[in-house]
Amino acid sequence: MSQWVRYRTGSAGEGFGRLEGDRIEPVRGFPWKQPQPDGAALPLSSVTLLAPCQPGKLIALWNNFYALAAKLGKATPAHPLYLLKPSTSVSGPGDPIRRPRSYTGKIAFEGELGIVIGQRCSDVSAADAERCIFGYTCVNDITAVGVMNESPDFVQWCRSKGYDTFGAIGPLIATELDWRSASVVTTLEGAERQRYALADMIFSPQELVSRISQDMTLLPGDVIACGTSIGVGSIPDGACVAVTIEGIGTLSNTLTAASGAARP
Amino acid sequence: MSQWVRYRTGSAGEGFGRLEGDRIEPVRGFPWKQPQPDGAALPLSSVTLLAPCQPGKLIALWNNFYALAAKLGKATPAHPLYLLKPSTSVSGPGDPIRRPRSYTGKIAFEGELGIVIGQRCSDVSAADAERCIFGYTCVNDITAVGVMNESPDFVQWCRSKGYDTFGAIGPLIATELDWRSASVVTTLEGAERQRYALADMIFSPQELVSRISQDMTLLPGDVIACGTSIGVGSIPDGACVAVTIEGIGTLSNTLTAASGAARP
Predict the structure, then answer these.
(1) Cα–Cα dist A212/B175, whole Å
(2) B83 CB near a chain A CB, below 8 Å?
(3) How confident is the prediction for chain B on average, in pLDDT?
(4) pLDDT given at position A252
(5) Is the pLDDT confidence value at B32 over 70?
(6) pLDDT for A122-146, tens place per residue?
(7) What pLDDT score does B264 carry?
């Protein structure tokens, strides 16, 4: 297994690198496309970690865990149900979750597993999907809950989940993950709020990639957030949410109050 | 007013250019960012026109015309209602609309006005939105109608409208458009199916850019499809849909049947 980060340094700009213990080995190009070593290793402590990729598509699943479906009384879907979060919603480890200036209501966290696509794929089988997956990361799929059902005619999935910084991913991409034995653990200010087994997924990562690739071409760096399970909750202003998956690490983000007055 | 195209030639690859009559004046860079002349003019007939930009976000409005809202009995929305079509759904003038291999049902056209963003903007006022708009193009917002309501629990806006080629834009970007006096005309195999005045829009282009920029940062090349009005209909396999807006031109695309067997 290897672990890949994207980072910024004061002097050398942004880049990708392979994480080895507490050092980063910089590469040229993309981790999923024949990366070439590029200079001396850097101490992890000397860089700022960024979102580990820059997805053109951030696809977010709804109703993909048996336990949450049972709790909400929802049927098992026949095909993955999803929305798109805009690429401008993507944020990285340690980035603030910024409360929209126009919104004073509840903002919710959802800890999730993210699949990072490694090669262009369209209409692949579940058996072939494995080779299209570069690796896995943690996702916090953030939602302005009050916006979602503001209209009686149209559920605003995209808008309520699409604000800048509402798609937190990171801290790194792990190229292998025994997801069947892994869990997602989400804490709020250090208190555990979610702990669910990824083995409870309705559509596995391989099935998700196969099925969604029948709907649209997936490109390297695209991320599929696999959906959440029981324990979703509200984030008070100033509180830190941490999503941990063993083998990947911990993605931490703090909700910051809006600065300045809302546009009238 | 100027008109901008993106094109491909056999020898010189892809590029942007300014359309002057039946000639294209190539430029370096982007039309919205200080484009510089780049070589001799080309006959329009010698190139293949492409989608006139490559939007990172293709935002599609729902319920943005009074006439259609009245027909469907929907309330006037308090804020623009929209979904995202993936960037991989974008196709250009003359491109085929490809029927998904897994889908045999009805595929619908929606002729629309598209706003092309010219500069990064976040939380802009309606007064300031005008300078963020680079220009306008035609959109055919294509939908696999049977997919949309396949699940009783979740309206599949993104999936039904997100298939590759289902976001047709073009044929060019007109930097100025007197949209208040313009109409969208959609024909199917030459027969008129939609003719509606853009003055009937609920949220004007400037209001759309302002409101949506309060939800998410808009980037150069992003496209906002302003929603459709009365006359939406189904496209038989092999039929050509043409969307015309005076001052922009005509966007034509033909629905092609799927090739090969569907994945079981």
Answers:
(1) 36
(2) yes
(3) 96
(4) 98
(5) yes
(6) 999 999 999 999 999 999 999 999 9
(7) 43
In chain A, residues with a C-beta closer than 8 Å to the C-beta of B100 are 214-215
In the prediction, which pLDDT does B260 show? 57
For residues A157 and A143, the answer to whether their CB atoms sit within 8 Å is no
Rounded-to-integer distance, Cα B26 and Cα B6, Å: 9
- Nearest to residue B4, comparing CAs of B51, B58, B45? B51
Q: Please indicate if any CB of chain A lies within 8 Å of the CB of B99.
A: no
Q: Which two tokens stand for residue A29?
A: 């190009």
- pLDDT band, very low/low/confident/very high, at B56 (cuts 50, 70, 90): very high
Per-residue 3-state assignment (H helix, E strand, C coil) for B163-200: CCCCEEEEEEEECCCCHHHCEEEEEECCEEEEEEEHHH
**CA neighbor of B55 nearest in space, from B161, B169, B131:** B169
- Where helices occur in A30-174 by DSSP H, the ranges are 66-72, 126-129, 145-148, 157-161
| Kind plus residue range of the DSSP H or E element containing B242 | strand B240-245
> Judged by CB atoms within 8 Å, which residues 114-153 of B form the interface with A?
122-123, 125, 150-153
Mean pLDDT value across chain A: 96
* pLDDT greater than 60 at residue A189: yes
Contact call for residues A137 and A169 (beta carbons, < 8 A): yes
Q: What is the spatial distance between Cα B136 and Cα B115, in angstroms, rounded to a whole number?
A: 5
Q: A108: burial class by Cβ within 10 Å (0-12, 13-18, 19+)?
A: buried
Of B158, B215, B263, the CB nearest to A163: B215
Sorted by where each starts, the structural domains of chain B and their CATH numbers stand as 1-50 (2.30.30.370), 51-256 (3.90.850.10)
- Give B144-199 pLDDT, tens digit per residue: 999 999 999 999 999 999 999 999 999 999 999 999 999 999 999 999 999 999 99
Nearest to A208 by CA among A19, A80, A114: A80
For B235, residues 6+ apart whose C-beta sits below 8 A from its C-beta are: B97, B107, B108, B109, B142, B188, B241, B255
Q: What burial class does residue B74 get, using C-beta atoms within 10 Å of its C-beta: 0-12 exposed, 13-18 middle, 19+ buried?
A: middle
